[in-house]
Design brief:
The protein is of the alpha/beta class and about 350 residues long. It has two domains: about 240 residues, 3-Layer(aba) Sandwich (Aspartate Aminotransferase, domain 2); about 100 residues, Aspartate Aminotransferase, domain 1 (Alpha-Beta Complex). About 35% of the residues lie in helices and about 15% in strands. The chain contains nine helices and 14 strands. The protein has a seven-stranded mixed beta sheet with strand order 2-10-9-8-5-3-4. Strands 11-12-14 form a three-stranded antiparallel beta sheet. Helix 4 links the parallel strand 3 and strand 4. The protein is globular, with a radius of gyration of 21 Å. It binds 4'-deoxy-4'-aminopyridoxal-5'-phosphate. The site of 4'-deoxy-4'-aminopyridoxal-5'-phosphate has 11 residues, from helix 3.
Length: about 350
C-alpha cells in the first residue's frame, strides 16, 4: 500500500507499525470480541489499557513518583485556561516568555485572573528567535513562569532552560514532548496536546507535581480543576478512550526503539540533514536564528510566494504533502516529529535539490 510522507504540524503522521497494530486489533481487542472504541472505560480491559499507557510514559520520560500523569480533553488550549484557575492563586501574577501565537493565547487566559507579565518577547522579529533571558527577570512575586518549549508555527525551540529563580516552571510541550531527553524535575507542570508527537487528537497529557494539585480558586469549574482528575486517575468522566489507547501504543513503540534518547538521535540526524541543505542552498533558506532552531518544525522559504506555491505542488506530486507553512507566516514548514522516518527527510531534501536544479 502506498503512503505519502506527511509533514503536517498536527494532527501528524503516526508510526506505521502502530497503525497496523491498531488495525489488527480494531474489531476484536485481545479476546474482548469488541473494539476498544466500544469498551466501557470502567471495564477491566480498559483499565489495563490506560494503566499501560501511563506506566509506559512514566518509563520513557522517567517521570518521578511525585508527579501525576493526567489524560485530559480540550487540547493544549484548555490548559491555557486551566493553569491560571489552579495555580495563579497567591500572587495572581504569572511571568510569560512570549515566543509566538500559542504563548499569546496562554497570556490572554492568564489576564482573566490577574497580571500576565511578559518578561521577554520575540514578536519584534516575527518570533524567529528565542529572547535572551536573565534570572533577575523572574521576580519572586509571581505564581509561576510559563514558556512554550517549541514553537510549532515559527520553528523555534528553547535550547537552554531558563533560570527562573526557583519559581515553578510550566511548559507547553505540545510540539516538543518526547522529541529529546528532558529532566521532568526541572518543571512544575508539563502539558501537551497529543496530535503531534503522541497520538491521535483528543487527549491532552498533563504531568503535574503533586504539591500543586488542590489549590484551585473556589469558583473553578469542576472539569477545570486538576484535583478532580487527579483524585479519579483521569476517570472522573469518560476519558478519550481510543486516543489514549493509541497513545499507549506510540509510547510502547518509543520504548521498543530505544526510548527518547534514541528518538533524539534520529531527530538530530533528520533536522541536521534538512538544516544543512537549507544553509547551502541557493534557492531555499531557513527563517529562524540558528541557535534557536527547532528539531520538530522546520520553516523555510524561497523568498518568492509564487515559487513557494510551485514548490509545494511539486513536492506533493512526488508524495511529500502538507508542506505549506502556517497561514500566518506563509512559505513552507516541514514538521518532522518522531514518527517521520529518516527516509522522509532524505526524500524531501532530494526533491528540494531537484527543484532547485530545475530553477537554475
Ligand atoms: N500549543 C502549541 C505549541 C501548539 O502547537 C498547539 C497546536 N498547534 C497548541 C498549543 C494548541 O493545541 P490544541 O489544538 O491541542 O488546543
Amino acid at each position: 500500500m502506498e503512503r505519502v510522507f506527511n509533514f503536517s504540524a498536527g494532527p501528524a503522521c503516526l508510526p506505521l507499525e502502530v497503525l497496523e497494530q491498531v488495525q489488527s486489533e480494531l474489531v476484536n481487542y485481545g479476546n474482548a470480541k469488541m473494539s476498544v472504541m466500544e469498551m466501557s472505560h470502567r471495564s477491566k480491559n480498559y483499565q489495563a489499557i490506560i494503566d499501560n499507557a501511563e506506566n509506559t510514559l512514566r518509563k520513557i520520560m522517567l517521570i518521578p513518583d511525585n508527579y501525576k500523569v493526567l489524560f485530559l480533553q480540550g487540547g493544549a488550549s484548555t490548559q491555557f485556561a486551566m493553569l491560571p484557575f489552579n495555580l495563579m492563586t497567591k500572587h495572581k501574577k504569572v511571568h510569560f516568555v512570549n515566543t509566538g501565537a500559542w504563548s499569546k493565547k496562554a497570556i490572554a487566559e492568564a489576564k482573566k485572573h490577574g497580571e500576565a507579565n511578559v518578561v521577554a518577547s520575540s514578536e519584534d522579529k516575527t518570533f524567529t528567535y528565542i529572547p535572551e533571558l536573565d534570572s533577575s527577570m523572574f521576580t519572586p512575586d509571581a505564581d509561576y513562569v510559563h514558556i512554550t518549549s517549541n514553537n510549532t508555527i515559527y520553528g523555534t525551540k528553547f535550547n537552554k532552560l531558563p533560570d527562573v529563580n526557583g519559581l515553578p516552571l510550566i511548559s507547553d510541550m505540545s510540539s516538543y514532548i518526547l522529541s529529546e531527553v528532558i529532566d521532568v524535575n526541572d518543571y512544575a507542570v508539563i502539558y501537551a496536546g497529543a496530535q503531534k508527537n503522541i497520538g491521535p487528537a483528543g487527549v491532552t497529557i498533563v504531568i503535574i507535581r503533586e504539591d500543586l494539585i488542590g489549590n484551585a480558586v473556589d469558583n473553578c469549574p469542576t472539569m477545570l480543576n486538576y484535583k478532580t482528575h487527579a483524585d479519579k486517575d483521569s476517570m472522573f468522566n469518560t476519558p478519550p478512550t481510543f486516543s489514549i489507547y493509541v497513545a499507549g501504543k506510540v509510547f510502547e513503540w518509543i520504548d521498543k526503539n530505544g526510548g527518547v534518547a534514541a528518538m533524539q538521535k534520529v531527530n538530530e540526524q533528520k533536522a541536521g540533514l534538512l538544516y544543512d541543505f537549507l544553509d547551502n542552498s541557493s534557492l531555499f533558506s531557513g527563517t529562524v536564528a540558528k541557535a534557536d532552531r527547532s528539531m520538530m518544525n522546520v520553516p523555510f522559504i524561497t523568498g518568492d510566494a509564487d515559487m513557494d506555491a510551485e514548490f509545494i505542488k511539486y513536492a506533493a506530486d512526488r508524495g511529500l504533502v502538507t508542506l505549506k507553512g502556517h497561514r500566518s507566516v506563509g512559505g513552507m514548514r516541514a514538521s518532522i516529529y518522531n514518527a517521520m522516518p529518516l527516509e522522509g527527510v532524505q526524500k524531501l531534501v532530494e526533491v528540494m535539490k531537484a527543484f532547485e536544479m530545475e530553477k537554475k
